[in-house]
Amino acid sequence: MADPRFFDRQGPFTLGAILEATEARVAHGTDLNRRLEDVAPLSLADERHLAFLDNPKYTTAFRKSGAGACFVTEALAGEAPRHMVPLVSSAPYLAYARAAHLFYPSIGTAAPVSLASGNIHPSASIGEDCRISPLATIGPGAEIGNRTVIGDGARVGRGVVIGEAGVIHANVTISHAIVGVGVEILPGACIGQEGFGFAPNPPGYITVPQLGRVLIGDNVSIGANTTIDRGAGPDTVIGDDCRIDNLVQIAHNVTLGRGCVLAAQVGISGSTKIGDYVVMGGQVGLAGHLAVASGVTLAARTGVTREIRKPGTYAGFPAVPITEWRTQIAHAKRAAKKRKENDG
Amino acid sequence: MADPRFFDRQGPFTLGAILEATEARVAHGTDLNRRLEDVAPLSLADERHLAFLDNPKYTTAFRKSGAGACFVTEALAGEAPRHMVPLVSSAPYLAYARAAHLFYPSIGTAAPVSLASGNIHPSASIGEDCRISPLATIGPGAEIGNRTVIGDGARVGRGVVIGEAGVIHANVTISHAIVGVGVEILPGACIGQEGFGFAPNPPGYITVPQLGRVLIGDNVSIGANTTIDRGAGPDTVIGDDCRIDNLVQIAHNVTLGRGCVLAAQVGISGSTKIGDYVVMGGQVGLAGHLAVASGVTLAARTGVTREIRKPGTYAGFPAVPITEWRTQIAHAKRAAKKRKENDG
Amino acid sequence: MADPRFFDRQGPFTLGAILEATEARVAHGTDLNRRLEDVAPLSLADERHLAFLDNPKYTTAFRKSGAGACFVTEALAGEAPRHMVPLVSSAPYLAYARAAHLFYPSIGTAAPVSLASGNIHPSASIGEDCRISPLATIGPGAEIGNRTVIGDGARVGRGVVIGEAGVIHANVTISHAIVGVGVEILPGACIGQEGFGFAPNPPGYITVPQLGRVLIGDNVSIGANTTIDRGAGPDTVIGDDCRIDNLVQIAHNVTLGRGCVLAAQVGISGSTKIGDYVVMGGQVGLAGHLAVASGVTLAARTGVTREIRKPGTYAGFPAVPITEWRTQIAHAKRAAKKRKENDG
């Protein structure tokens, strides 16, 4: 499923080869010569694909998945749909990581590297009236839209697409990304690097290949030294008209709707889905795998640990409606005052 | 008002042209041929300048402003001083953004770009005994003081001034800034990029041109990957002897007094004014448009939401004197213990 | 004690010269011609070395130190072991800073600078099958292991060692570091810059030379725009198999054990020691000079202000066992609800 502009796939591999690489088990009589062509997320996979179920939160997606085979624990294997071969493993995420390395063996060394001396790769396509610094790097197959400006030391990786009238400032690094029209990225921002995905493999961990992209809409602005990781399999998505300040962290698979505003130092954990026109004050943090409804405002320093379904303004940690937070604060102040009087 | 070392201005423009671009209205009989030369903040504007009043907090500055014309809502237009032409708009900030784009049409594409192959622009001035990496970029008109060191991949934009004995480490980006003597900037820091300023313009936003600078005093030290945005119109100011750690965010128009110490991951929102020798622990956050008195210490992770007038040590969120915070914490612990006993 | 691969030392200096530079005092009859060869931390110093005691927390280390001489306040000078010459000062840290500048006068200007036009210094050693971008910089004496990849714009400073099969992504800056095998460093990370160390020297501060290194184990992964400062004298240490996400701050002298996992925007203050397999959620903060036991998990946004000796999961600020934190939260919610009912 991975975009071939960014990733080089090996394979197909037989089920037998996959079982050997991953130590997973299948039911007696399963055809071990069946070939699988790729790995894919549960929600996007079809019969050619290998998926995994690790977080029980995604059991519904598992039941509905079109995947041809799927790593899963023994406990949940019975939930597999009839067309799917469950690959039973005590550590499905680890097994998936190993299988993904089989399909994408060079994933770990994809640092943007110019092996030619010129800064623009001959296979890149550059629009009209662009201004591209001779000190920037444009990788193989990249496409730069008309009138786009690329600053000194900016690194645009293989296959990256940047729309018209973009401004990519100095020392930005961008890989594995499709960027819309009129997007500005301030200095030092890092877009499209691998997400924070790894499976325990004692005494250490194994990196789970991050095979998604970053999709950035039109008229988005991204602040200095902000980091946006590419998806793990699904994509990380930034909607049209989003405004993102400096030093913000957006993890893999996060989705921002249209017109969201994120102040500095916000952090959004992996796979969280944000609606349209959500506003976040500085230093807000959100846990992973959550949904936040359109029209929500999060006051500065709010910590979100659960889904937020209703529009409105929230504050505190854990986040509550802001009026409730104000009551909590007032109570804490009064209670402390009273105690001090009693103690004094 | 914008420093011509950094910004290219168009104009002057007639009031008529400005009204056409911004959809603002003036009183019957106003001279539409009157020419305005520039945009400027309320506090710095004179009769040649166009300003705006959006945040009611600045109504006093509006009443005292010398601006020749000013975007303002109908409700506040009556507060305008006699010499000022109020330009009535339901969205004064949006109108200002449009006018500012008229005066500064190229603002959006000011990414530092070297169009020559050499790394030091011929119009830059380099002091004696400097060590400038051949892999750094020094933009047009920049001035580098004696004995200053500029590391590999550092980008020094057009017109930037760096004083004597400075050390600009590798991969720093600096634009729109005037830097004092003996300043050290650690790797990856981004100084002088545009602030987080935009006006709603449904379904998206319009960027408000950021026309100020960053003024950095003498003997300042700035940490790795820290970001300091340039002013929106006023300047962002860092006083002499300030010590700023890594990953700190300083927004547009912030002022730090002399000798302030900011630990890592502090965030200061726009237009907040900090006194002298203010000390902030790690991960402290301050809301915008506040004042903090000289001699204040903010314990790590303090969140400041209101003005602090008295020196002393503060903690918690919202910030309170640290003794009060300790009482709150003690109360919360005891109350939880009691509840647990009652529940148990 | 500083590693000569990274630091150029002057001296030795006589006690007399050191006293003159630092305004410290010694007991009558002390031999002022005694020569000292270097500065060193209390715990590592021997009779050739000059140390300092500033934080009373380290008085035990002072009593046990092998240092030949040590800056110390009058109040604590009596605790010096017999072989040590106490150098009495009202500001021992300031005195140490001045002495360290005597031994390391060029410390302040160590920005990675390539003075040659080639990007790999002739004295660097490059392993087999490396892919090094022609747009990267490899400093004098650096050693790059076999099969390591170095991206565009990456800056590898003087003397840095990077083990086999490493991947250093674009625009990374790394100095004063020894890096293990199989380490991946994502774009924009800054490793090895000077820590946040300075002594008051009114009206400003004097930088305390940071003479340690960053030691990174095998199979470590470091996120985009993360910052890891080198030690002040001791080293900053990252154990094997650690996984560090984006925008994390690790201050000087911090030690991470094996297999720690740090989510995005974590900040660890100076000299804190973390055990093995410690897990930290996003935006966690730890104060300095603390110890955290192996097997501890810190929930997202936890603020640690004291030593944690027992494995388990902690949350809140100040950190408490997570069950206690949940009780606190539940209590705050119920109390606020009750107050609201009473007020309503």
How is this structure best described in words?
The first copy, chain A, is α/β, with parallel strands linked by helices and 344 residues long. Helix content of chain A is 15%, strand content 26%. Chain A is built from 5 helices and 37 strands. The mean pLDDT of chain A is 94.
Protein topology:
The structure is a homotrimer of 344-residue chains.
Chain A: E1 13-14, H1 15-22, E2 35-36, E3 38-39, E4 49-52, H2 59-64, E5 69-72, H3 74-77, E6 85-88, H4 92-103, E7 125-126, E8 131-132, E9 137-138, E10 143-144, E11 149-150, E12 155-156, E13 161-162, E14 167-168, E15 173-174, E16 177-179, E17 184-185, E18 190-191, E19 198-201, E20 204-207, E21 214-216, E22 221-222, E23 227-228, E24 236-238, E25 243-244, E26 249-250, E27 255-256, E28 261-262, E29 267-268, E30 273-274, E31 279-280, E32 285-286, E33 291-292, E34 296-298, E35 303-304, E36 312-315, E37 320-321, H5 322-343
Parallel strand pairs in A: 3-4, 4-5, 5-6, 7-10, 8-11, 9-12, 10-13, 11-14, 12-15, 13-16, 14-17, 15-18, 16-21, 17-22, 18-23, 21-24, 22-25, 23-26, 24-27, 25-28, 26-29, 27-30, 28-31, 29-32, 30-33, 31-34, 32-35, 34-36
Antiparallel strand pairs in A: 1-2, 19-20, 36-37
